[in-house]
Design goal:
Elements lengths: L21 E4 L5 H12 L8 E4 L13 E2 L5 H9 L3 E5 L4 H13 L12 E7 L27 E2 L14 H13 L7 E8 L1 E3 L7 H9 L5 E4 L8 E3 H14 L6 E4 L7 H12 L4 E4 L1 H10 L6 H5 L4 E2 L26 H12 L4 E6 L6 E4 L2 E4 H9 L2 E2 L2 H9 L11 H8 L9 H12 L2 H5 L1 E5 L5 H7 L36 E6 L2 H9 L3 H6 L4 H14 L11 H7 L7 E6 L4 H12 L9 H61 L1 H25 L4 H11 L6
Parallel strand pairs: 1-2, 1-4, 2-3, 4-5, 5-7, 6-13, 7-11, 8-10, 9-12, 14-18, 14-19, 17-18, 19-20
Antiparallel strand pairs: 15-16
């Protein structure tokens, strides 16, 4: 029966007319937009996948689930996208002007002239606690020197919206909120508008709290700062819950309210929030700092200073529209209904996945010499090279010995293991007992750096029994025996807690090669280098026997060794065992390792690649420089050699010429004597006669005189 004229028919769902729902999200790659689009796609019913469109902050950051993207400066394109969408979502805190422009476009649209447009539009503006910053209440001083407390706070709901007081820098945000609520709902038949005030959003890749997560993960701040006393309470909500609330508002289009305060049930103080982050990602240490020091911290982390305003609020709010939107306390819609602190482990796991900083835990295991690959410049150690490229911690037993020896005892903030290590290494050349080595590795793998970035182990542990002691694995009891019950040993008062079992490596690289190949590889090292590496023939055979024993099949011939243990514990976290034949070229081996793990997982995943490329370029430049210097030296030596040869040739020629002159001089001595004795006197007399006679032809006269004076003719 159709409703009577005076009856109020329920509003049609957004996207009426049976067509596919289209959602426009301003800033698809923003914190809220990224999660909202992802939730809309993943939680849509089968056959009801929405079309997601919107603009981007950075054109390079288009999410994989986005169907259409409009440039932010394309006014006409934005207008078409808005008018073609059923649901429009804007973040009023970051984009108040853009939200105002969008609202004007929707209000000016003449639905009467476009009867074919059956879209019933919903515009939702998501705002923040900055609109309520002026409602923050002062802390209450503690009694008899006790720290301050949040005090008895007034409960704020949507009923107090008219009383809200914005932060001085965000009054425009309140103006846009009022515009969306009051002006937007003028066209209730075709356009409904809502404002959702969000508590401090957390979860996924993190927003306001990101700097605290980041510096904890990186280890740049071992002690996390708390703004002020940390006794203030700030309403919070998981960003996926916020996205769910927004989508439920769009779906239900409530007619009895147009504003929503979206917060979870957690009532933790900011101090408790920071402490929870530090406990999971660091060692749990925190310190209270003043506003100036906290702003300096945020400047270092390149975070907006306005975030500190939200962290300093002291407000209590309630989700009074929870029932209408399907978010009661018992509802399964909640992702984190009990709040941040109660769900910190889950929140940290989300942070790691969304930011791509999931720890890399790898184990390289194989016969002796499989982890070493000779090159022209020396050799590449696969495990160490991998740790350097992926920026994770390489676990070296000798380094651990020195690290733990330098630690103070547990009573002074260190570990009592340091005493055991010092005692074990008191005598030069003494071996550290296996149980002490095991505890060192266990405690090292529980340190924040290994929990956050990950670790690389190489040929440790060496047996199945040792692996079952070190790692959290499922052990298979012997036939007829019951599975062992794991009991956590409790530490006495003032005593150091026993080490926890370490998480399994997510990837085990099982290195293999023929023994003949390995022997040739070791022989190529030379005796001295092989001895330094612990790979003499006797040592090699002993290590091979130990490896074979650790991986021997059971009595039935089935695999039952150390590698098989890792394969059996996929459910416990060992995701894959990758077999690598190391007699392949180094590039092939390294590429297979990279393909098995994927890209490095950290805030600068390309850092190692850039450093590797820079090192390669530097090596090329160095080799070219060395070649040029060698050629220049050779050219200089050749020039000097040529000049020296020319000098020697000149000296030799001069000497030969002198010798020839002397020889000619010696040979001319008899002729000179003959001339002096026989010719010169006659010639002298002849010249005297020419002077006396003065003949007309002196030459002919002198010639005739000499001819007549020839003694052979007389």
């Amino acid at each position: 029966m159709p409703p009577k004229k005076d009856d109020k028919a329920p509003p049609p769902a957004a996207g009426g007319g049976g067509k596919q729902l289209k959602i426009f999200i301003h800033e698809l790659d923003g914190y809220l937009g990224n999660v909202l689009g992802d939730v809309a796609k993943k939680h849509a019913a089968e056959g009801e996948q929405p079309i997601i469109c919107g603009s981007l902050i950075d054109p390079r950051n288009k999410p994989t689930w986005a169907d259409e993207v409009v440039r932010g400066d394309d006014i006409l394109g934005l207008k078409k996208a808005l008018l073609a969408s059923d649901v429009i979502v804007y973040d009023l805190t970051s984009s108040p002007k853009e939200a105002t422009s969008a609202l004007k476009i929707l209000l000016k649209y003449d639905y009467a002239e476009n009867p074919e447009d059956e879209t019933d539009k919903v515009m939702i503006g998501v705002s923040s606690l900055l609109s309520w910053a002026g409602n923050s209440e002062p802390l209450v001083d503690g009694v008899d020197g006790a720290p301050p407390t949040s005090g008895e706070l007034n409960m704020l709901t949507t009923q107090n919206a008219d009383e809200r007081k914005a932060h001085p820098d965000y009054k425009a945000q309140v103006a846009v909120e009022n515009l969306v609520v009051k002006k937007g709902n003028v066209r209730k038949d075709k356009l409904r508008t809502y404002v959702v005030w969000s508590g401090l959003a957390y979860g996924c890749g993190e927003g306001v709290l990101h700097s605290l997560f980041k510096c904890s993960w990186l280890g740049t701040h071992k002690v996390l700062p708390i703004l002020g006393s940390g006794a203030n309470k700030v309403p919070m909500i998981h960003v996926q819950d916020l996205a769910g609330v927004v989508l439920n508002v769009a779906k239900t289009r409530p007619t009895d309210f147009s504003t929503v305060v979206a917060v979870d049930r957690g009532e933790a103080t900011i101090g408790e929030v920071v402490k929870a982050i530090s406990t999971v990602l660091q060692s749990g240490e925190v310190k209270n700092v003043g506003p100036d020091e906290y702003l300096e911290f945020m400047t270092q982390e390149k975070e907006p200073h306005i975030n500190s305003v939200q962290l300093g609020l002291n407000i209590k709010m309630a989700f009074d529209r929870a029932e209408a939107l399907g978010y009661t306390a018992e509802s399964e819609s909640w992702v984190s209904g009990n709040g941040f602190v109660a769900n910190i482990d889950k929140v940290v796991e989300e942070y790691r996945k969304w930011r791509g900083v999931v720890p890399v835990r790898a184990l390289f295991y194989g016969p002796p010499a499989t982890g070493m690959h000779p090159t022209e410049d020396g050799r590449v150690l696969l495990a160490r090279d991998f740790a350097e490229e992926y920026q994770v911690n390489y676990i070296s037993i000798p380094d651990l010995v020195e690290e733990f020896k330098a630690m103070p005892p547990f009573a002074e903030g260190g570990t009592d293991l340091s005493t055991k290590v010092k005692e074990a290494t008191a005598e030069e050349g003494a071996q550290v007992p296996d149980e002490v080595v095991m505890e060192m590795v266990q405690r090292k793998l529980q340190q924040p750096a290994c929990r956050n970035q990950g670790f690389v182990l190489e040929n440790f542990p060496e047996s199945r029994a040792a692996a079952e002691t070190l790692f959290d694995v499922d052990t298979v009891p012997a036939e007829g025996e019951a599975p062992p019950e794991e009991e956590e040993a409790a530490a006495g008062e003032g005593q150091e807690p026993p080490p926890k079992k370490a998480p399994l490596p997510t990837t085990v690289f099982s290195l293999c090669a023929e023994e003949e190949f390995l022997l040739k590889r070791i022989a190529a090292l030379g005796e001295e280098e092989a001895a330094a590496q612990g790979l003499t023939e006797e040592e090699f055979q002993a290590k091979m026997a130990k490896y074979s024993e650790a991986n021997a099949p059971n009595e039935e011939g089935q695999p039952d060794g150390l590698v098989e243990l890792y394969r059996q514990n996929q459910a416990k976290g060992c995701e894959q065992v990758v077999e690598i034949v190391v007699d392949n070229p180094l590039e092939f081996v390294q590429d297979k390792i990279r393909m098995s793990i994927g890209e490095p997982r950290n805030y600068d995943p390309n850092k190692a690649r850039r450093e590797r490329e820079a090192k390669a370029l530097a090596d090329v430049a160095r080799r070219e420089g060395e070649a040029a210097a060698k050629k220049a030296a050779e050219d200089e030596a050749s020039r000097e050699e040529r000049e020296e040869q020319a000098r020697l040739d000149a000296e030799r020629l001069q000497k030969l010429q002198e010798e020839e002159r002397q020889s000619l001089l010696l040979r001319s001595q008899p002729m000179r004597k003959y001339l002096m004795d026989n010719v010169l006197p006659t010639l002298t007399v002849g010249l005297q006669e020419v002077a006396k006679v003065r003949p007309n032809d002196p030459i002919d006269f002198l010639a005739e005189y000499l001819f007549n004076a020839d003694p052979q003719l007389t």
